[in-house]
Design goal:
323 residues; alpha/beta; Quinone Oxidoreductase, Chain A, domain 1; 2 domains; seven-stranded mixed β-sheet; six-stranded parallel β-sheet; globular
């Protein structure tokens, strides 16, 4: 038997239930991983609510990333005892998962299981956005919105590694403190002054070259008013609502608006995902990037864990712990 958070009815996180399910036998080429931790991501919340692009058949177990140890294998290229990160489209909010070897990544030696379980989704999205989509260059100015969130902090870290000047925006001083620890050169508190004015002041009127926006809504429209010529605006998410583009500003600044779907990009072009994963794992092994985790909760606390993200009470990542 295995324990899992099960969604039998779409809606808020509180509809999830912890159930005991029968463990299925492995087929040829499959691996059983005893999961120690799983990461909470906004797509998981949207999937449970029925508002995500991917809509699994009910019932299902949410969770796109986790980390643990291989306890059984019918595959040749992995072995029992390997410590791994597991990637899935759903199914990771459980104490075990059956996966294929191509869904598994070696856990970086410097990481514990909670770090592994909260690494690839956020940092993978940030890498795809900054490197594949924006093609950010050393010396450019990167504006990061939602800088207290997991993907925002990942963008700050990678922006620093890539040689950009990073301006971080967040809703509290506590979040901005962590943003500075992750490498932000400048920080802006949303409530203190209009961020578009602050960005112009910090860049001597030039504006940002790249905007990393997981928030959307009014944030997106105001970002158009503080960009440099040829800027790239990265649409990473819409936690603050669906933004409306003032297309005249896009035209005037010769700007580009770029959608960011890291997982779908790798599914359509697997070679892109291989390069991304290799680069991130090397940076992790070198100790240059790591997720910031503010909360750890047991599997039974899955609804509370999701609420921490929904209510903006987390700084960085939230992890479920199963062992």
């Amino acid at each position: 038997m295995k324990r899992a958070a099960v969604c039998r009815e779409l809606g808020p996180p509180e509809k999830l239930r912890i159930e005991e399910l029968k463990s299925l036998p492995l087929a040829a080429g499959q691996v059983r991983v005893a999961l120690h931790a799983a990461g909470i991501n906004f797509p998981d919340i949207l999937m449970v609510a029925g508002e995500y692009q991917l809509k699994p058949d009910l019932p299902f177990t949410p969770g796109v990333e986790a980390a643990g140890e291989i306890i059984e294998t019918q595959a040749d290229n992995v072995k029992v005892g390997d410590r791994v990160i597991a990637k899935a489209r759903f199914g990771c909010y459980a104490d075990e998962i059956i996966a294929s070897p191509d869904q598994l990544v070696p856990l970086p030696k410097k990481f514990d299981f909670t770090q592994g379980a909260t690494f690839l989704a956020g940092h993978g999205t940030a890498y795809h956005a900054l490197v594949d989509r924006a093609q950010i260059q050393k010396g450019e100015t990167l504006l990061v919105h939602g800088a207290g969130g997991g993907v925002g902090l990942a963008a700050i870290e990678l922006g620093r590694v890539l040689g950009a000047t990073v301006i971080a925006c967040a809703s509290s001083e506590e979040k901005l403190t962590v943003a500075r620890q992750k490498g932000a050169d400048h920080t802006i508190l949303y409530a203190r002054e209009p961020f578009r004015d602050a960005v112009k002041r910090l860049t001597d009127g030039r504006g940002a070259d790249v905007v990393f926006d997981p928030v959307g809504g009014e944030i997106f429209e105001q970002s158009l008013r503080c960009i440099a010529w040829g800027a790239r605006l990265l649409v990473v998410g819409f936690t603050g609502g669906i933004g409306k583009a003032a297309t005249n500003l896009v035209l005037i600044k010769g700007a580009s608006v770029l959608g960011v779907r890291a997982g779908e990009a790798a599914r359509r072009n697997p070679a892109l995902g291989v390069v991304r994963q290799r680069a991130l794992l090397q940076l992790a092994e070198d100790g240059r990037i790591a997720p910031h985790i503010s909360h750890w909760l047991p599997l039974e606390g899955v609804a509370k864990a999701m609420r921490l993200l929904i209510d903006r009470k987390a700084i960085g990542r939230v992890a479920l712990t199963m062992r």
